[in-house]
Design brief:
By secondary structure, this protein is α/β, with parallel strands linked by helices. It has 4 domains: 2-40 and 47-143, OB fold (Dihydrolipoamide Acetyltransferase, E2P) (Beta Barrel), CATH 2.40.50; 149-304, Hypothetical protein af1403, domain 2 (Rossmann fold), CATH 3.40.50; 307-365; 437-477, no CATH class. The protein has 13 helices and 15 strands. A 5-stranded mixed β-barrel has the order 3-4-5-7-6. Strands 9-8-10-11-12 form a 5-stranded parallel β-sheet, with helices on both faces. Helix 6 (220-234) packs parallel to helix 7 (258-265). One of its GO terms (cellular component) is exodeoxyribonuclease VII complex. Its EC number is 3.1.11.6. Residues 23-42 are annotated as: Disordered. Residues 165-476 form the Exonuclease VII large subunit C-terminal domain. Bidirectionally degrades single-stranded DNA into large acid-insoluble oligonucleotides, which are then degraded further into small acid-soluble oligonucleotides.
Length: 489
Amino acid sequence: MDTFNNLRVALDAIGHSVYRLSGQSPPSLRMNSDSSLTSSTMPGGEVVVPVSALNRAIGSMLERSFPLVWVAGEVSNFTRAASGHWYFSIKDAQAQMRCVMFRGRAQYAEFTPKEGDRIEVRALVTMYEPRGELQLNVEAVRRTGQGRLYEAFLRLKAQLEAEGLFAAERKRALPSHPRAIGIVTSLQAAALRDVLTTLSRRAPHIPVIVYPAPVQGVGASAKLAAMVDAVSARREVDVLIVCRGGGSIEDLWAFNEEVLARAIAESAVPVVSGVGHETDFTIADFAADVRAPTPTGAAELVSPQRVLLLRELDHRHATLARGFGRMMERRAQQLDWLARRLVSPAERLARQRTHLQQLSARLASAGARPVRDARARFSLLQMRWQRWRPDLAAHQARLGNLTQRLDAALLRQHERQAARIATLSARLEVLSPQRTLERGYAAVLDAQTGRAVRAPSSLKPGRRLTMHLAEGTADVALADVQPRLADGF
């Protein structure tokens, strides 16, 4: 029953996509009891859609309906195109499926499949629309039995844990207010953008230094370890984030190498590991001082939230102001009590009048402060708005200037090309064989072989020649030949 329902939903999606592409309202599709597809009659006649629209709708439905999946099989018809893309088929005893792995993914593969290899591919089910063929868009490839990587992970984890590399007493606390934050990852990694966005949002006042290193491929772990060592030597940051986005175990394998784990453990700077998703665990996570579930989580762990800091600062300032005010009030009250015992009534009245004036001034100041602050904020916002307001006249003038420069450049290029064509035409006219013949020269060819006659010694009486002149061709026979030395004309 579940299969029947899934098929019905898929057919409904295809039908609605096709009719949406054709610009008409979709009919109601239904499944009969014998699982055959029927449709209601469309008002105004039948619907006709192009094959490309149908293939596009089917491909869109496939990509939305099928998630990334691991597929196992045997490689056949493997081809590496000049563009770097891989094309092959994966098959078993009952079926086969065409596969494509584009260069951006293929360059990170740990091995190149060959005919007959048994592999597993992580792929998305798609359709190649020009031929209407179902295919797998491969994102990762591994040899069958990748459980060996997990076994190697467990062995290395047990070895380093026995050495005390993961001991809790080795872990260091993260600085609550770092002066600078370092990031070790690839410049092309999506995780870098997430981390920088989070740091910019939470703590824009803290400088960030990015130490680029590959996070996938051959030798990536050694380069990551070298960069961690460089951070320790430079001492430019107070805390270091080692991160990358999620992926399969082979994608994250650079963070499961011993060399990187030891570099993190020996780092002079506290290290936060943010590798993969929350469910992904690597050796680097255990060696780091703190393990974050994601790269974004790592950024949140190392950065104090600026809004909270400002809020706490305002709270402390208000507390200090209240405490100072209460102390001043107590001192003033004590002074008044002592003054009442020492001063005359007239002086007491004068002091109370002064105190009343002070209170009045404070009240006026307290009432004017919100207005003053609001005016200051308004002025600041007005200045920021004026600074970011686009200067349309300047942009239009610059656009007009660029247009004139472009027209002038095109005109100069056209003139140069025309002059060059004229020069080449004149040179071609000078070198034309016809012009040579018009100056009185003739081309003498052997009538049998068609080759040019160059030496007088090859001329014999009775030999037939073909002579090409400026105004035509003539066949001649030699009656007599008198050779002369080549002394000019």
